[in-house]
DNA sequence: ATTTTTGTCAGGGAAACCCCTAATGACTCC
DNA sequence: GGAGTCATTAGGGGTTTCCCTGACAAAAAT
């Protein structure tokens, strides 16, 4: 048979029992092992070769984040679902950077945890609904900054191209104006923001959401 | 009393009845109105003054996205929860940009929808778990590209500063080398990548994760 | 052992950039 | 209706930066 294999990594005995019981109720997978520290998780990942590891963040020794990093380094095919009580933005980002495919809070209800496990096993990503708001700053908070931004629409347009590395000539061609116009805009921008170095302008443009990686 | 007021905007009669029934079961809020087009939603938002609008995306006339934009423009305090069958990345991003506070798929189970409404009413954001993976591209997929990067460590370092808008002189001071050295590195980078325009280098640096908006 | 890559530097000319000045239209404020 | 502010558009002249062509030694690859 080919039921997915799940490994648990958590040092909270009581919770562990609960999770074990809960996951056992569903006949879609089987629990192949339980560990209670980050080191054990790394060591046993190769032995039991699970499809998914339910990983706590706060564990003795190396935490769940570092364990995730090491496991994903050696065995990229193993999916890792963080199960933690930390609802801070920082932990979520670190977990994702370490290679986790999902993030669920321990206050989640049974159906949510099962749904998360199922989702991650399918190769998708599951982020606890209220946590995902951390991931799109810049999407919604654009307008709040506009009030404080002393630049005109045209100036912001110019700044955007400047920050993206366009030369004044290129910007001029893009906006169908003279190079001199672009230079003036840039001068006024530098003056208003009191930033003379181009690198400062780039940082400002990024902070204002004028340029965005997620296009 | 001050129960939160909820308004429904959807043109699917059957589904509407279901949602109405489902939300009525919970005694935490009351449904104050039902509309079946984007225009109606905008018009009635001020009349009924709901705390939350459950909004479909595909509706006659202006869709739910545009309706959301107009409502948030005039009445920023009204929370909007998108309820749609579209699971595409583009719709999620557009909805968030328009000002939606939540995004739930119609295939969600009852508890999820109730949880979403509750979350959004509390002022938080609720994103359907499997949808949020669209929001953090660049977090996880950084290393995959690094292998193909033909640049040396020093060159990548220089490129980073170039992309951040530093001048050669500034980079030289930063790295304690001659300006001419920096210029040579930049020339090699342009040569290797076949990119002569600075803006292209910025884009490349971003795509390689050499510079990151998320600090 | 020889070729290639890497890191370091220079000179000269071209291009980009910066500072100062300024005209025009739009807008507000008496 | 004028006076002032601001946005947008430019030009002249000087300065900095950038690009191209070389160069050479150390390290790495072959």
Describe the SSE topology.
Two copies of one chain form a homodimer.
Chain A: E1 5-9, H1 13-25, E2 30-35, H2 38-48, E3 52-55, H3 64-74, E4 79-84, H4 89-98, E5 102-105, H5 110-121, E6 126-127, H6 142-148, H7 153-163, H8 168-175, H9 179-193, H10 198-207
Parallel strand pairs in A: 1-2, 1-3, 3-4, 4-5, 5-6
The structure holds a DNA duplex (30 and 30 nucleotides).
Q: Tell the overall outline of chain A.
A: elongated
- Which stretches of chain A are low in confidence, meaning pLDDT under 50 for 5 or more residues running? none
* Fraction of helical residues of chain A: 40-55%
* Order of secondary-structure elements of chain A: EHEHEHEHEHEHHHHH
CATH superfamily of the largest domain in chain A: Response regulator
Number of strands of chain A: 6
CATH architecture of the largest domain in chain A: 3-Layer(aba) Sandwich
Determine Rg of chain A (CA atoms, Å). 24 Å
**N- to C-terminal distance of chain A:** 45 Å
CATH topology of the largest domain in chain A, anyone? Rossmann fold
Largest sheet of chain A: 6 strands, parallel
Q: Give the structural class of chain A.
A: alpha/beta
> What's the CATH C level of the largest domain in chain A?
Alpha Beta
Count of runs of 4 or more consecutive helical residues of chain A:
10
Biggest chain-to-chain interface with counts:
A-B, 43 and 42 residues
Mean pLDDT of chain A: 84
Strand order of the largest sheet of chain A: 2-1-3-4-5-6
């Amino acid at each position: 048979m080919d039921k997915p294999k799940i490994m648990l990594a958590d040092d909270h005995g009581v919770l562990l029992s609960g999770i074990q019981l809960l996951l056992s109720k569903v006949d879609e997978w089987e629990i192949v092992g339980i560990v209670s520290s980050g080191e054990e998780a790394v060591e046993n990942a190769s032995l039991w070769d699970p499809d998914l590891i339910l990983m706590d963040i706060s564990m003795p020794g190396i935490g769940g984040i570092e364990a995730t990093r090491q496991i994903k380094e050696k065995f990229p095919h193993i999916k890792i679902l963080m199960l933690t009580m930390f609802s801070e933005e920082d932990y979520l980002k670190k977990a994702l950077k370490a290679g986790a495919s999902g993030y669920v809070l321990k206050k989640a209800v049974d159906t949510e945890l099962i749904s998360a496990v199922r989702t991650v096993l399918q190769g998708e990503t599951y982020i606890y609904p209220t946590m995902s708001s951390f991931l799109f700053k810049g999407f919604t908070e654009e307008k709040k900054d506009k009030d404080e931004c002393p630049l005109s629409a045209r100036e912001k347009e110019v700044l955007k191209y400047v920050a993206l590395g366009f030369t004044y000539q290129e910007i001029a061609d893009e906006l169908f104006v003279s190079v001199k116009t672009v230079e003036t805009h840039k001068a006024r921008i530098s003056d208003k923001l009191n930033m003379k170095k181009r690198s400062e302008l780039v940082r400002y443009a990024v902070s204002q959401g004028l340029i965005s990686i997620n296009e």
